[in-house]
Amino acid sequence: MAFSSYAYLGPEGTFTEAALLQVPGAAEAHRLPVATVGAALGEVRSGRVDAAMVPIENSVEGGVSATLDAVAVGEPLRIVREELVAITFVLAARPGARLDDVRRISTHGHAWAQCRGWVHSHIPEAEYLPASSTAAAAHGLAEGAYDAAVCSPLLAERLGLAVLASDIGDVSDAVTRFILVTRPTVLPAPTGADKTSLVIPLPEDHPGALMEILDQFAARGVNLSRIESRPTGQFLGDYFFSIDADGHLADARVADALKGLHRISPNLRFLGSYARADKRPSTIAPRTSDEAFDAAESWVEGLRGGS
Ligand SMILES: O=C(O)C(=O)Cc1ccccc1
């Protein structure tokens, strides 16, 4: 799937841009930096661009709520690809600055959450100013509203900033997962190492509703790689589940699980089936293989036909 135009969480130099540049052909395509995840998805929904790259999950901080919520409502979207980016942070400041003088620090909320430990032990009196991205914080240093920004080493170098400290992430091998989102389209072909993303509203407040949902996956041997609950925003206690399952809609066990889920929660949203970035194939028990599902289907058809 090659696209000619992409929106991404900008400005230039974000980790999201790094994720986008990993997509074959993206370096030669039109790339539109926008200020928020919502704006990036809006550019796709309105048809101004073919696809958008946005962060969805970090190995330290967890899900990116802005993304989980924005894909769960509004005009339907499809995830067609995922990218993993290893994240390292530096504390960058205007040239000539000293670590001892840093009080006000700006960055993206997810970056802050991953560097909080380092900041508290090295600059206990630090004050945090949220920015729309790590790169927005770095670009904004020139205006003087804060003393330092947490951003990528590459951007600090590109902007000619002083690096006051390197590798300030509390976990050294943090990874962020990004998704490439389009309008509904034909699914990418199954690769054998795929993922399916779903948004499942909790059907009604009855005991065991979540168990019933999980059972649809368990009974068909479908492994889950992420499950998060998010409030719908409608009223207190109203939640949906954001789920990534191993496998592709073309796999019988995944399709069968989705049919079961549709009976339980008819308003569930299919967000897409796409190749896993780590290419790790799903383990499939013989009783949940496509062949086992086909054999079971033929058996029932045979019985209905009188054999
Ligand atoms: O702000 C950025 O650079 C982003 O792309 C969002 C983000 C922030 C922190 C970790 C991973 C992604």
TrEMBL record:
<dbReference type="GO" id="GO:0005737">
    <property type="term" value="C:cytoplasm"/>
</dbReference>
<keyword id="KW-0456">Lyase</keyword>
<feature type="site" description="Essential for prephenate dehydratase activity">
    <location>
        <position position="176"/>
    </location>
</feature>
<keyword id="KW-0057">Aromatic amino acid biosynthesis</keyword>
<feature type="domain" description="ACT">
    <location>
        <begin position="198"/>
        <end position="273"/>
    </location>
</feature>
<dbReference type="Pfam" id="PF01842">
    <property type="entry name" value="ACT"/>
</dbReference>
<dbReference type="GO" id="GO:0009094">
    <property type="term" value="P:L-phenylalanine biosynthetic process"/>
</dbReference>
<dbReference type="InterPro" id="IPR045865">
    <property type="entry name" value="ACT-like_dom_sf"/>
</dbReference>
<dbReference type="InterPro" id="IPR018528">
    <property type="entry name" value="Preph_deHydtase_CS"/>
</dbReference>
<dbReference type="GO" id="GO:0004664">
    <property type="term" value="F:prephenate dehydratase activity"/>
</dbReference>
<dbReference type="InterPro" id="IPR001086">
    <property type="entry name" value="Preph_deHydtase"/>
</dbReference>
<dbReference type="InterPro" id="IPR008242">
    <property type="entry name" value="Chor_mutase/pphenate_deHydtase"/>
</dbReference>
<dbReference type="Pfam" id="PF00800">
    <property type="entry name" value="PDT"/>
</dbReference>
<keyword id="KW-0584">Phenylalanine biosynthesis</keyword>
<protein>
    <recommendedName>
        <fullName>Prephenate dehydratase</fullName>
        <ecNumber>4.2.1.51</ecNumber>
    </recommendedName>
</protein>
<keyword id="KW-0028">Amino-acid biosynthesis</keyword>
<dbReference type="InterPro" id="IPR002912">
    <property type="entry name" value="ACT_dom"/>
</dbReference>
<comment type="pathway">
    <text>Amino-acid biosynthesis; L-phenylalanine biosynthesis; phenylpyruvate from prephenate: step 1/1.</text>
</comment>
<feature type="domain" description="Prephenate dehydratase">
    <location>
        <begin position="5"/>
        <end position="183"/>
    </location>
</feature>
